[in-house]
Amino acid sequence: MRVAVPNRRSILEKAKAADLRPQGVDGKRLQNVLDRAKKFFRRPSRHADESVERHMSLMAQSVERRDWQAARDHALALGLLGEQLGDPGLVKKAGRGLRRLGAGNRAWQLIASSKQVPGRPEWDGSDLAGRRLAVERREGDLAIFLQFASLLGPVIAAADRCTVFVEPRLAPLYRRTYPALDVRLEGEGEVAAMDADVFACFETLAKHFWPDEPTARAPFLPLEPDRRMVAQLRRTYLDRGPGPLIGFAWGSLNKSKDLPALDDWRALLGNLPGRFISMQYGDVGPALSEFERWAPGRIIHDASVDQLSDMDRFAAQIAALDAVVTISNTGANLAGALSVPTVVMLDDGFRLSWPAFGETVATYPSVRLVRKGGQAWASAMQEAGKRVMEIVGGVGDGR
Known about the structure:
There is one protein chain. This protein is α/β, with parallel strands linked by helices. It has helices at residues 8-17, 29-40, 50-65, 68-85, 88-100, 105-114, 143-147, 152-158, 171-177, 202-209, 213-217, 227-238, 266-271, 285-294, 311-319, 330-337, 377-392; strands at residues 132-136, 161-166, 182-185, 198-201, 245-249, 275-278, 299-300, 323-327, 342-346, 360-361, 364-371. The protein has a 7-stranded mixed β-sheet, sandwiched between helices. The protein has a 4-stranded parallel β-sheet with strand order 3-2-1-4. Helix 16 (330-337) links the parallel strand 8 (323-327) and strand 9 (342-346). The longest helix is centred in the first third of the chain and has 18 residues, at 68-85. The protein is globular, with a radius of gyration of 21 Å. It comes from Mesorhizobium temperatum.
């Protein structure tokens, strides 16, 4: 079965031209958060089941109160109902919610179940010795390839041959990190036509290799950037002045995000030492002009790096840095997958890629989360600045 891939070119062209200066948001912020939570938990089931309606409503209310234990209980109930009703949409919704709520392996069980392809032998966790495994994402954004990359080491060791279909921009990183992996490009062939014994999505791998969160941490292996390119970019940036080198990004095409306004970055940029390297896609000129006023001579925009068309060079840029401070975006996930010390600033939304509470991320040991917490962004920005200062303390021209 062919999996539909979004029109990547049109999305990338739109992103390249976008002026992503965040706009200030007034008192509607909280209402926007609540509206997003209600939308997320809108009943996806095709079944007229009162229990589904009740748990959906109570879960949305729990998220609104930030009562994570209650939200987890309702998500667990919804997952069980989805299985009983044979409703993949409800199963997936429950699994995705549980992933944010720290429910461990149950989240992977549900998401993997919802992604199974009828008529194709799904790997059931049995011995892979002498067998050929094909792995694909099936659905989801680019972050899937970054969050689950560490799973491939154990898979390669267990299987006779492992083939992974990846987003084309990430193929060099995957091939460099796992030379024994058979890396294929998405869209260049039918997965079903693969000469494989069993198939899996990334969540199926997580179901069998990550029974709990500590296990998710244990086998972490960073993606391997082009080390020559990393050294060349680092030298180039340090030629502009002493480090540390701090990457930052501030804008998003996702209009549902509550982002710090440009002026919120003033104190952070003014108080931190070193050079600030833009990791932002889109039309960065207007924003950089403002940042330059607050950190004169310390802002670097490298036009040779275009993450939208050359993710490998973008990875080398991130790996050349001493720290990253950013909103939630692809760069935050890539920095985590590269094991670069990173501070991610999160609004109060119920975000797919990040835990709903806590400051750590099991799949990215080098990432720390700073949450807006219902306050003005100034407080979170101050906390983020402190975290970055702790990371770069004592870092100058070297590491």
